[in-house]
Task: structure prediction
Amino acid sequence: MSTPTAILLEAVSFAARAHRHQIRKDKETPYAAHVFRVCLVLQQVFGVSDPATLATALLHDTIEDTPTDYDDLAERFGETVAGWVAILTKDMRLRDDVREPAYFAAAAAAPWQVQLVKLADLYDNLCDSAHLPPATRQRSVRRSGEFMAFFRPHVKPEAHTAFALTELKLREAAGG
Result:
């Protein structure tokens, strides 16, 4: 990738193609809207301008939810972005009771840029939960709260403001 703009344009196109057949939980919204919004939260709400971090936001669900693998991302976007996306990828081969703690621990130990992407992901999911049926919304808010509680002592200094903004969004989504 030659320029920061070229990296982002390629990541947008790649994510749109990778998620082209997926729909969000509301059964109406194309899934790609989520990764685009996560990128916008990073940029517009959290003030992030780093192209690698923004590209990671755009690609953060590609390994987990599409046929894309680490090598595909490394070839196109470099080892840093591919590695950051890999950290944000849940190992679906594991049982849920093992997978979630492993994922939480990886996010806690991750570089601050990855933590920012995860916080933007949670922020967007919380925004999006307002459009879900009450039971689904409550589950989403509960899971986000569990992650935030675990994550709190591990947040890198560079991610403190984003963490605080995401906590506010969590309280808002929880109804208080």
Notes: The chain has a mean pLDDT of 94. The two ends are 44 Å apart (CA to CA). Residues 70-87 form the longest helix (18 residues). DSSP finds nine helices and no strands in the chain.
